[in-house]
Every structure is written in C-alpha cells, then in structure tokens.
Amino acid sequence: MRLCANNRYGQEDSGMVGVLVISHGNLGACLLDCARHVLGRDPDNIATLAVEKTEDPDQKLVEAAALVARLEQGDGVVVLTDMYGGTPSNIASRLINPGKVEAVAGVSLPMLVRALSYSSQPLEIVVSKAITGGLEGVLYILPGDGNAAR
C-alpha cells in the first residue's frame, strides 16, 4: 500500500512517473549515466532501451511495452526518444496511451534531468517540464559567457 499526499497542485500524489528512454544505440544509457552524475543519485523510476539498426522493430516494441509495464506504478510513464521519425520514436508512438503513457522526441540531458527532477508530479507536468527542459537547454553561447575559468 502506497501512502498518498497532496502535491503543490492540490492533487493526490501517489508515487512517481516512470521514465523510459528509447534511443539509437547506447545514447539512452549514456544520457542516464550523465543524469545520475548531475542529480547525484540513481533514480529507480527509469529504464533505457537501445535500438540497433539490425534489430526487429516489432521485437523491440515488445521489449519496450514490458519496460513500460514495469515502470508504470499508477502515475504514468513518459517515453523519451532521440530523433523524431526514427525507429525509436516510431516504437514510442506505438506505446502511447493518452494520460497514461506519453512520448516526447528529441531527448537531451536537460530534458532527461528535468523529467527525473519533476517525476513526483502528475504525468502532464512531467511531460511539460521535459519539453521545456529540452527547449531551454538549447542556447547559443557567446564568447566569454558561462563560468569559464579565467
């Protein structure tokens, strides 16, 4: 039995949104390693699925569905995938169940960190935060900007 509490949005908060990263090759695993470093913790509500060009997409869909089932604890799952239109995003699109399993293409480290950081919020908030994390993570750096050592 899970304990429930009200979150800051006045909604019952019963757990965590699961996060599944489906990517070409080992990109998802590498992003997860980086996210662990940035967050300073090892999230237990995430899984990755690598897709190689020699693999059968239908078999990978079966694997992805099993990962979604494992991650789904009643709060939904957000599937993050690398490039829209590629095999990983096509697999993700077949997993979508509105309000329960949502998908976002264009995964990046800022997007993943944001999704994990807000995963205790409702699914629609996690999706929104992931998208804004991805959008706000793309910046043109001017010379001398940032925290470069001098």
The CATH superfamily label reads Phosphotransferase system, mannose-type IIA component
The domain count comes to 1
Strand fraction? 15-25%
Strands ordered across the widest β-sheet: 4-3-5-6
**Count of beta strands:** 6
What do we call the CATH topology? Rossmann fold
Q: Kindly report the oligomeric state of this protein.
A: single chain
Shape: globular
* Helix and strand sequence: EEEHEHEHEHH
Secondary-structure arrangement, i.e. CATH architecture:
3-Layer(aba) Sandwich
Query: On the 0-100 scale, what is the average pLDDT?
Result: 90
Measure the end-to-end span. 54 Å
Radius of gyration (CA) equals 16 Å
Low-confidence stretches: 1-13
CATH class category: Alpha Beta
**Main sheet characteristics:** 4 strands, parallel
Output the number of helix runs. Answer: 5
Class of secondary structure makeup? alpha/beta
- Helical fraction equals 40-55%
